Amino acid sequence: MYVFDLDTVELPFHIWCLSCNERIGQGVRFNAEKRQVGQYYTTPIWLFRCKCPSCKSYFAIQTDPAHTRYVIESGAREQLQDWNPEEHGGFPIHDPEAPSEDGAFSLLERKKTQQQDGAKRQARIEELEEHNRGRWADPYTRNAEMRRAFRADRKARLERAARDANLRERIGWSDDLPLVGESSTDLNLSTPVVRRDFYEARAKRPKPARLAPAFSRAQRAPQLSTAGRRLAGQLLAPGYAKR
Q1: Domain ranges of the chain
Q2: Which residues cross the membrane (predicted)?
């Protein structure tokens, strides 16, 4: 019989129970039996004995101070993951074979990377300084160009403000509500442009062909007999009157 303490332990990774083959997820907490099973230099090695919630069988995990991680002692097996849990909101897995960031080679590589980055930044700074010197070689000319551009922009802003005020007055638009600026679509749909496009399209439209009469007036006139022509002459005479 051995002496143990009760402590709350949280699974550091996903495991499979060897008794019922049920999966227990990372982060599940257990009231575990805690006892010391060894020592790594001056650091104690702790073993946690937990009960599976499905089959009530026991499994044990213990600390591994040499590699700063947990290992399964018995009753379960770790779920192997071929993806990076950090990309899915999980915790990173310790790789004991990965080079330490505090080692001499890591410090040398980090120093070399910093030197390369510093050289790139210095080249960019010199490029910006050269560009600035080229633009401000003649301060008077540069200042005149800026003032000219500002005056043109101010004139355009004043004209736009006057047009907006006129539009607000015509349509009864409140001064508190903003007006949307003009766009290329609005200019293409304005009344003068639409009217011009309409007349141009109508001028390009082919005119309908007028058909010539199939028969002339003389051919369409009925052929009268001699008596009929005599009667027609009497009826059309100016002095003829009905009796």
Answers
A1: 5-81, 99-155
A2: none
